[in-house]
Design a protein that fits this description.
One of its GO terms (biological process) is negative regulation of DNA-templated transcription. The chain has 275 residues and is of the alpha+beta class. It has 2 domains: 67 residues, Arc Repressor Mutant, subunit A (Orthogonal Bundle), CATH 1.10.10; 173 residues, Chorismate lyase-like (Chorismate lyase), CATH 3.40.1410.10. It contains 7 helices and 13 strands. The strands form 4 sheets. Strands 6, 7, 8, 9, 10, 11 and 12 form a 7-stranded antiparallel β-sheet that branches. A two-stranded antiparallel ribbon has the order 1-2.
Length: 275
Amino acid sequence: MARYEEIAQDLRVLITSGEYPPGAALPLMRDLAEQYGVSDITMRRAYGLLTGEGLIESRGRSGTFVREHPDRLRLTVRTRQMERDELGYYSGPETQGWRPLQLPDGEQTQVVTLLVPADIADTLGVAPDTRLTVRRRLIGDPDVETHRQLADSWLAPWVAEELPLLSGRTGLGGMYDRLEEWGSQPLQWREEISARMPSPEEAAALVMPSTGVPLLRTLRITYFAEAGPERVAEVQDIRMSAAVFALGYPLPRGESARWPVEPATGDYYQDPPEA
């Protein structure tokens, strides 16, 4: 282990144990460099590791401080299910009051044609260098600045061709109502959840620290019930801050785990194993 990694580990233990609580100022780098007998460069690398982990943050001339870490917070748990009210579909009861917020260009919905990301291209069955119609929105709680998400809806080519109105205002009920009206059948959804670090633009839009906090990324895949999951109509790329949100969902039993089950070790309570 390099010397800067050893120093970072020492400081990490002091932070996670509460010796340096959230909001506490860390010693000046030059003082720690003298204490450890290392150069300023070594200390900067140690602090850089902890910054990248989201444990500390620099506040310019004020110094370096311990950040409130997600593991010590009670995150808002987002339930992964589709709900509906008089305005249309929404994803989970926690977001019912959320509304479109203003994008940097001043619009609430930006409809543009862009190169599709490779993983979304694969899901839609198109080449990675394909340009597709995407509806881009920033949605959130008007009363809580950090409770928001970016949502980019990538339309399958056949959907954009059959429903050109989705390239403009979709009206009450939104895109999903228009799709169900057109198809005369219900939509179904599945989701894939991952995490990555945000771009500077994403961090700014989601009111996130510029370093040390990952995005939670959910790809919501939309298809018609009769057509099946292979004929995808839309993929929504949803990003939210992992410093604010966790994702929660029920964990159903598979067919092989249907109750009652045969105990793996026989009748434990009648014939317990010897100590």
